[in-house]
Design a protein that fits this description.
Helices cover 35% and strands 19% of the residues. The protein has 16 helices and 20 strands.
């Protein structure tokens, strides 16, 4: 099958993984992307000429990348430098309280006891046990399954798994479920935030998303050179196996011949023949006909609500000796208003939570003076509509006031020290999304089953990325790339060396 030509549209995480594994199996692979380099949402901006990770910043589920590297005959540590973080995240509240969660469970337990009392610490232990059970129950039949359905998952869970789901009340939303675990509203708020990892509201997301807490407790790492180094690594490995990367080349159309994929046409006029195409982009672009009117029905299922977007500030700033760690979250007292503003009123939150990634911290000595920061607040995915400068300015001022209430005052050297990205900007980067960064929102118990799998309705077209199963996030997108490669090779009758690791249960080390 060496003559079988594959074009991968999009050099995001899923596209890079698909290309690597397909080339490793001997197929001829070309990756095209309108950007100047690899990464997709994993991108760097250059305030003051310094690289700041301005997309995903949290590296978890490293076993996914251990498997990917193993499938192509190498090891993660041989390709990138990663450092385990002792502090998973540092949390601040308006009342001046602060809580660190640690990689060491005993340290976290002690910290919670000092923060909220011994009784809440006991409840925290019980919550951790439940989150572990939920993750263990769903990892095989849902996360790693190529195309999970409710019926298949229920039959695969077994009595213990079914009992675990029954115990959390899967029909409950995450916020209400957490209310059964914690009495301190700050603890409830902290773990409700994990719904935003899927671009969702804690008041609409299913209780099963508590498993994301377990993902972080299994370990968080810092990648030397930033998350972009991971994308560069996958491209380098692909190049060694013959992948051809074509950047600064937007795909204008997926071409068809006799009802099957036959190639792609680039905006600059070139055409590339293809026997198969892997689309690593948001499926909304297909549904809206941006890749050709014949592909509007290529993705099955109903259109789901958009996930969260964001306003971000990539900056080089002096933190005035404030005690940040690598990952920091600043909370308001009124958490519900943020999601009411975004999902009910379609506007920027007047009381946003602020996430700050201090990219020079967490792995060594504190940086003197200015340092690289990414500040992020959640936003509605309405980047295809007008968002006024006054609204954006008000959001920035509210965010600054929240950080200042905890003692963090950011000092910029000049306007060049900060680069802002809005939902409109994300909409331009990722067409048809309105700036949504996580595909569809995971609202309701059945929402996760509404995602498309790797096979589209068009012969020869395969889907990968955060808008398809298993969902958003760097490791999940990487898994979708594995699943797309596995589906393509299975359809060709090839044995995919990564198929077992992409879909099988058990024998995993976390």
């Amino acid at each position: 099958m060496a003559e079988h030509k594959v074009v991968v549209i999009g050099a995001g995480m899923a596209g890079l993984v698909s290309a690597l594994q397909l080339a490793n199996a001997g197929l001829q692979v070309t990756v095209v992307d309108k950007a100047a380099g690899p990464g997709g949402k994993i991108r760097q901006l250059m305030p003051n000429g310094l690289p700041v990770d301005s997309g995903p910043t949290v590296f978890t589920m490293r076993w996914v990348f251990d498997q990917i590297m193993s499938s192509v005959g190498t090891q993660l540590e041989s390709e990138v430098l990663i450092h385990p973080l002792k502090v998973l995240a540092r949390h601040f509240w308006e009342d001046g309280s602060q809580l660190d969660l640690y990689a060491d469970p005993e340290r976290s337990l002690d910290a919670v006891a000092q923060f909220a009392g011994n009784a809440e610490a006991k409840r925290f232990t019980q919550f951790c046990q439940t989150a572990r059970q939920v993750y263990d129950a769903l990892e095989g039949p849902f996360i790693k399954s190529p195309s999970p359905t409710m019926a298949q998952m229920m039959s695969s869970l077994g009595p213990r798994g079914l009992a675990t789901l029954a115990s959390i009340g899967p029909m409950r939303n995450l916020w209400n479920s957490l209310g059964r675990h914690f009495t301190d509203p700050r603890m409830r708020q902290l773990f409700a935030r994990y719904a935003t990892y899927c671009g969702s509201s804690p008041w609409e997301a299913p209780a099963t998303l508590m498993l994301i807490a377990q993902v972080e407790m299994d370990g968080v790492w810092a990648v030397e050179g930033g998350m972009h180094a991971l994308a560069a690594c996958l491209m380098r490995l692909g190049q060694k196996r013959g992948v051809n990367y074509v950047f600064n080349s937007e795909c204008e159309r997926i071409e068809l011949l006799q009802g099957k994929v036959s190639g792609v046409r680039l905006a600059k006029g070139d055409s590339l023949r293809a026997d198969s195409v892997v689309f690593n982009g948001d499926i909304a672009a297909l549904r809206k006909g941006l890749l050709g009117p014949s592909l509007t029905q290529a993705v099955a299922g109903k259109v789901q609500p958009r996930s969260l977007s964001a306003v971000t500030w990539s900056m080089y700033a002096d933190t005035q000796a404030f005690a940040l760690d690598r990952h920091n979250v600043f909370f308001r007292n009124n958490y519900a208003s943020e999601f009411e503003d975004i999902f009910m009123h379609g506007k920027l939150p007047t009381q946003p939570t602020v996430y700050v990634c201090a990219q020079d911290r967490g792995t060594g000595q504190l940086p003197p003076g200015a340092e690289r920061l990414l500040c992020l607040v959640n936003a509605p995915a309405r980047g295809d509509k007008r968002m006024s400068e006054d609204e954006l300015l008000s959001c920035a001022q509210s965010s600054q006031a929240l950080m200042a209430a905890s003692g963090l005052h950011l000092k910029l050297e000049s306007s060049a020290s900060c680069i802002r990205t809005t939902p409109q900007d994300f909409h331009q980067l990722f067409p048809a999304t309105g700036g949504a960064l996580y595909g569809q929102a995971t609202h309701g118990w059945m929402a996760a089953f509404a995602r498309s799998n790797a096979r589209s309705q068009m012969p020869g077209l395969y889907l990968a990325g955060g808008s398809v199963h298993p969902g958003p996030g760097v490791p999940m997108a990487a898994m979708s790339g594995q699943l797309a490669a596995a589906a393509l090779m299975a359809d060709l009758g090839l044995t995919n060396p990564s198929r077992k690791t992409a879909t099988s249960g058990g024998t995993l080390t976390h």
